[in-house]
Amino acid sequence: MTASPSIPRTELHAAAERFGTPLYVYDAAELDAALARVRAAFGQARVFYAMKANPNLTLLTRLRVAGVGFECVSAGEIARAEHVGAGGESILVNGPAKSGEEYAAGGRLGATFVVDREEEAGLLPPDSRALVRVNPALNVSTHDHLATGAAGSKFGVTIEQAPGVLRALRDAGHTALGLHVHIGSAIRDAGDFGLAFARLAELRAHTGELEVLDVGGGWGLDADLPGIAREAHAAASVFGASLWVEPGRYLVARAGTLLTRVVGTKRTGRNFLLTDAGMTELLRPMLYGAVHPVTPLWDGAGGETWDVAGPACESGDLLARDVVLPVPSPGDLLAVGDAGAYGAAMSGTYLTRPRPAEALWEDGAWRLIRRRETAQEVWAAEV
Ligand SMILES: Cc1ncc(COP(=O)(O)O)c(C=O)c1O
């Protein structure tokens, strides 16, 4: 496993030196390649990037220029989409508990809403375009916290409710474009998608033809995209619908690497390799037990088994467990891979730790795309 497929090691060292660590770096070529893979698999489907995965304005701009729209779940995300020049046609407003702010911002821009409960027919701005999110009631192969299509989850309406919600939208004067499904994130078994799409297709008898079928995102990084796309197109054709997709992690995860310096080591029965990044920079290992590849950027023979632990006062503050790495020296650089999605986006300021800088590797040069915060900025809103 390599943490950063195409950025030369010397350049990773140079970036850490220039911008400091912890540091997120992104490879523009890998971002473009991921989008190309999505387009090759899904053909004419409209792509709405789920910006929750990584909302950095430079990455959003790159995707917008490439013709990608945005799936947004907060007024802040809608403002980001507007800031990078996206118009209403390219914005989807999603979320199980939208506030007045989201309805107002989406309505002002003419965005499409993804309705998550029947009452929303009465809450949308007048003459809205809307999809109905359906919960297919499936147990899917991912961490419980990442599963969004299981029976009893808070997302969407039930299969039985969906035709009635489409009718309620039309009765309220909105344009009910079609159906939406998103079964979760980091899904390991691609077969889960086929099952979910097939459940929606069964609704055809009750809904008639529809304009749009939106099958969300959630694809694993090694997923068989052509296979998922075939199932999605098959379901869309049942409705005579155009296909929309909402990838987040798939588009940006591989492009991103978290660079962290070794602070030291400690042996307490387990071997700890202590780093200057941890849960405040990359929460996924702690939150979901996510496994990220780690690559040592120092020379050394042999290896020992380490837990890579961050600086927070939390026992769960681990970036990796049981990884074999050569013995490091303080200051050595470790690369944590597949970190472009839900990495910087979920970074926090717990312990008044300023959020890290982000840099883009593009055409053989580094560009700072977010500077490191200062401690003063962390407390700036306090009175
Ligand atoms: C509605 C919706 N669409 C798309 C996504 C993107 O998922 P992923 O990043 O796993 O592709 C999410 C993630 O939570 C989501 O909730």
Automatic annotation (TrEMBL):
UniProt-listed CDD domains: PLPDE_III_DapDC
Cofactor(s) annotated in UniProt: pyridoxal 5'-phosphate
Signal peptide bounds: none
Domain Orn/DAP/Arg decarboxylase 2 C-terminal stretches: 24-340
The keyword Magnesium is annotated on this UniProt entry: no
Modified residues (N6-(pyridoxal phosphate)lysine): K52
Catalytic activity, as annotated: meso-2,6-diaminopimelate + H(+) = L-lysine + CO2
Domain Orn/DAP/Arg decarboxylase 2 N-terminal: 30-253
Gene3D superfamilies: Alanine racemase, Lyase, Ornithine Decarboxylase, Chain A, domain 1
Functional pathway: Amino-acid biosynthesis; L-lysine biosynthesis via DAP pathway; L-lysine from DL-2,6-diaminopimelate: step 1/1
Enzyme class, UniProt record, top EC level: lyase
Positions bound to pyridoxal 5'-phosphate: G218, E246, P247, G248, R249, Y342
Residues involved in substrate binding: R249, R284, Y288, E314, Y342
Transmembrane spans: none
Subunit note: Homodimer.
Similarity comment text for this entry: Belongs to the Orn/Lys/Arg decarboxylase class-II family. LysA subfamily.
Role summary: Specifically catalyzes the decarboxylation of meso-diaminopimelate (meso-DAP) to L-lysine.
Protein known as: Diaminopimelate decarboxylase
Naturally occurring in which organism (per UniProt): Deinococcus aetherius
